TrEMBL record:
Protein name: Mn2+/Zn2+ABC transporter ATP-binding protein
GO-annotated molecular function: ATP binding; ATP hydrolysis activity
UniProt keyword Zinc present: no
Domain (ABC transporter) ranges: 2-219
Pfam families listed in its UniProt record: ABC_tran (PF00005)
Amino acid sequence: MIQLRDFSVRLGSRDVIERCTADVDRKVLLLGPNGSGKTSLLRALAGVLPYEGSARVEGVEVAKARNMNALATNLPEVFTLGVRLRDVLYLFGEIKDLNEELAVKMLRNVGIKDLSKRVYELSSGQGALFRTAVALATNPRTILLDEPFENVDAARRSVVVNWIEEYGESGLVVTHELDVATNFKELDAYMLFEGRLHGPINVGELLSSVVVEGSRNGALLEVEIGGKRFSFVKDQQGSKLGDLVVLDRIYSLL
Ligand SMILES: Nc1ncnc2c1ncn2[C@@H]1O[C@H](COP(=O)(O)OP(=O)(O)OP(=O)(O)O)[C@@H](O)[C@H]1O
């Protein structure tokens, strides 16, 4: 369970996340184009970036929390200890209550079998799979997954979809790929544009919606991008959001 109240993240002289308020009590997708602030939001919630306002995870203010076992993330910052894969599993066993047997099984399922390998010897896709598997094998309540499908091939992507369905009770799964979102049509999503959080909205409805300029009665969602308002509407002629494949292409519709 994540509760944000007037939550902002400032980097340098600018707010990359601006006064967001949301209650996330189930697993939701966090969609946004490159540079919209998704990773910054997750970093702040994982306690590795300062924030203003309030962010509670499982009722605990993140800034005051120490080693929250209820929270799991695949952010690389959390995986900097340990040279070999088995060192990381050992350390997560000590500090995060990792179910090592489960982690080994999940890693085998995606072809990561040699635990004497050094972490830096993993390919970028294998690295993403390793961090996601280890995070989810800690029996978390809240999950924060940043681009868990990045550089992962199609067969392994479906394994990761199953993992996300199975593990964790609530939390944020970040992607800028609308192709990935098609696997989660039953879930809700938040969209992040220019540091502002919009939603929640059902993923299936979002993907079949059309983006039009201005405010519209009955719109599923309205967003502000570059100072202009846009509406996501149903049952209208035009390019569907789901056809864009990656959300970054939304700028070609605006
Ligand atoms: N350490 C930093 N100092 C200053 N600005 C930063 C820093 N890290 C990120 N930013 C800026 O903050 C904004 C949000 O970055 P962030 O990485 O959170 O976006 P994102 O939505 O995760 O993007 P992507 O999909 O490309 O990973 C970007 O404009 C980025 O340039």
